[in-house]
Amino acid sequence: MNIERIVGLVFSISTLLILLFVVLTPQVDYQQDFKIIDSASKKEEIAKIEFEEKSTEIEEKPLNPKKEIISDAANIDRSDFDLFVLRVHVLSSEDNAKKMVTKINEGGFPAFTEIFGAKKNLHAVYVGPFIEESDINQNIELIQKVSESQNGEISRWKL
Fold this sequence. Notes:
single chain; about 160 residues; 4-stranded antiparallel beta sheet; 5 helices; elongated
């Protein structure tokens, strides 16, 4: 009886291994080739190309040699920086708006003013920017206390 169990266990394990190695291996069509580029050597190559551009005549070299992007930092878009602000006041006096910004900054929150309105004669006081809207909601009571405002409007703010 023990031999039958051992044979069954070996058979089960071998079947499982065959299933894992044969059936579940990644297909060649779905594999991607990754090439690791040494950034130091790539920078040297780019510097060499730029040096050659300066030292040769324009007719001999193409205007824009092909250059590869070294990192994903070049793919960052300005829309990736959507932030949130809370408009706490709209004032007609620029001096009063600046005083309010100073008071809010002293209270521990970032603040700034922008010209507001169709006639460009008003000054809006904003608290922020914050990364998430929930940051404003968690601190709304303290912001209202520091800014001496019981109403405000949360809006998106882009760089």
